[in-house]
Structure prediction request, 316 residues.
Amino acid sequence: MSWVVLFTLQRSNFMLKIYFAGSIRGGREQIDIYQKMITHLKTFGQVLTEHVGEANLTDKGEKGLDDSSIYQRDIDWLKSSDMVVAEVSSPSLGVGFEIAKAIEFHKQVFCFYRKKPDQKLSAMIAGCPDVEVFEYDDFEDFIYQINSIIKDSITNLK
Amino acid sequence: MSWVVLFTLQRSNFMLKIYFAGSIRGGREQIDIYQKMITHLKTFGQVLTEHVGEANLTDKGEKGLDDSSIYQRDIDWLKSSDMVVAEVSSPSLGVGFEIAKAIEFHKQVFCFYRKKPDQKLSAMIAGCPDVEVFEYDDFEDFIYQINSIIKDSITNLK
Prediction:
């Protein structure tokens, strides 16, 4: 891939709207990598669900919003997004639900899975023809893969 | 509710096709209750996903079927089902995905959640207007609630 093209896109006026999906109430074990991923994704535009990476957001969920309001806000964000990036290394009802909804809304869905020896990704994600699953080793590996994906997506969207 | 009506329905020729959703690769902590729920649901007809309650099905998933085949079989079962009963006490990408797909296929979705003091159900399920969430204390409580639900559903479907 051309890093010059990517650098130019990062600094152009084109702002991607990215829906980042990560576990909240399912468990916050992956919070460190969510934070890093969101910070990197923000170099390409707006991450609608930036709060997913906030350290003070616990597995008790958001304060000040009831479940119906959270649901409707997230569905509206999903509909308005240009793409969905989902971290799928942790089991999560919400992330699974969001991935299926994103497919229904005809969004591009990119799932990132950090392989563990004692764990297998759900067949409903790994076997789904409507999403792309990328295994990654660490944050550097994620950066390498997502940069390539976003370069291609921006080219298609422009 | 009339238990005579329910007893009559259980022994009539009307066979419900029920899609039971429970965590597999997300974790098998709830296997005992899955087994009991499925055994009870079978008194009303066919549980398409009976394997979810099998003790020898571990979190490594099914043997002998690749992920694409599992996905397509489960989507076909979802489409052909009369209703979906989902146990949502454990985080699970697959269960979250199946619930959203079931809504897309215009199925009735009944989610059963065993409340724990240190856990909250995902807002994408708890706040979704297209599913019904029932909290339950134990298996006896599940039986009481599901019998009432199925009696009403059979009456509507007949």
Q: What stands out?
A: The longest helix of chain B spans residues 139-157. The first strand of chain B starts at residue 16 and ends at 21.
